[in-house]
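Problem 12. The chain below contains 441 residues. Write out its predicted structure in token notation.
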Amino acid sequence: MDSYRHDGLTFDVSDAAPGNAVPREADPGHSHLGSAEAVVLLHGFPQDRHCWQAVARQLNEAGLRTLAPDQRGYSPGACPPAVSDYAMEHLVGDVVALLDAAHVQRAHLVGHDWGGGVAWALAATHPERVASLTVLSTPHPAAMGAAMLHGQVLRSWYMGAFQVPRLPERLLARQLPRALRGAGLPPAEVRRYADRFAEPERLRGPINWYRAMVRGGARLGLGVVTVPTTYVWGEQDPYLGRAAALKTSEFVGADYRFVPVRAGHWLPEIEPRLVVDEVLARVRGASGGPAAAEPPAAEPAAAEPVGTPSGNLSVLERLGAAEFVALTTFRRSGEPVTTPMWVARDGDELVFTTPTDSGKIKRLRRDPRVRVQVCSRLGKIQPGALAADGQATLAAGAAEVARGSAVLRRKYGWQYAVMLRAERLFKREQLDRTILRVRLG
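Solution.
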């Protein structure tokens, strides 16, 4: 099958099966006999079905059938003009129609970015058609909405910009290569997507997904998902933050696995092996095989010591992934002084940024002891929050300062750049002139 029809539209689809499997549409009456389980792969913006090539190939080699459609607005034969045609019920209906056309009663569903949004909605509204759910990057829509009050709105500013008629298409057609390169997409994929969307008109459908969401056409107020779910989130994703990622667990009422990884947004293209491993773990679990073990919680109920190398690595990774931490230094009297700061992991150390005229620097020159503890944006530390002790040093030389600043910029993206610009506007010391490094233990 290379296409299917729904709602008067024609959708392109890549349908691949392992060599010894029977495609279900070829044997609709006996699909349970010797046929491959199906995995549906839903792309995001501004991608297409080809983003799944490496993932699909490995899933086929593992004995699974894959169905990867170009979704509404991306398939040339499925680009309706009205914004209302991109309401979430239509996007979900397109995937249900794909399952029907492929004679698949239940599939393992995988979605990335906007494809993840459709996957969440399909699993919530048609759980009988979903054997398992694996979502990459995109949190549950309700978690996303809640996180808007905790900084996510700053990451999602472009959604508001897309509401302007016609202008976003014209601007994005010119700026798309630069934007994708800046977001970390590999050069080959940058060229492919830039070529596909070189004409503003080709971006009308994809951008209409955002317009439909804001205008009420995309019903994102979904309830709890009741199918086994894995959520893979890149800690360096510039678009989707930690608050929504952590809150997603509240909206899954079945077996749930949260997998934070040291990666950015483009997981299908950059981390295909990781994606395949997580999908296969879900497939095995759904078929009665051993599922993957749940990773350690991101923020345990009690502070953890860091007395062993393995324990040190675990705490180091989790503190480096936190959105905010409280850094405590000590006055001559031993009195602790705690300041909320941004943090990133750089190898076996944590990196912080702080003004050069801060009293904290003077204290560290006398006493390099520090305590690092997960906190809220305003510096509030919850009881039992993850914590560790360490030794702090100042980055020495311009090269080391630039390296530390680059690590923080990769994690916090444009927010870090805005912070630096604000420092210049108010004629304060630039925060990237001083980089603080902390080694735990």
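Discussion. The CA atoms of residues 195 and 239 lie 23 Å apart. Students who got a different answer should revisit the alignment rule from Section 12.3.
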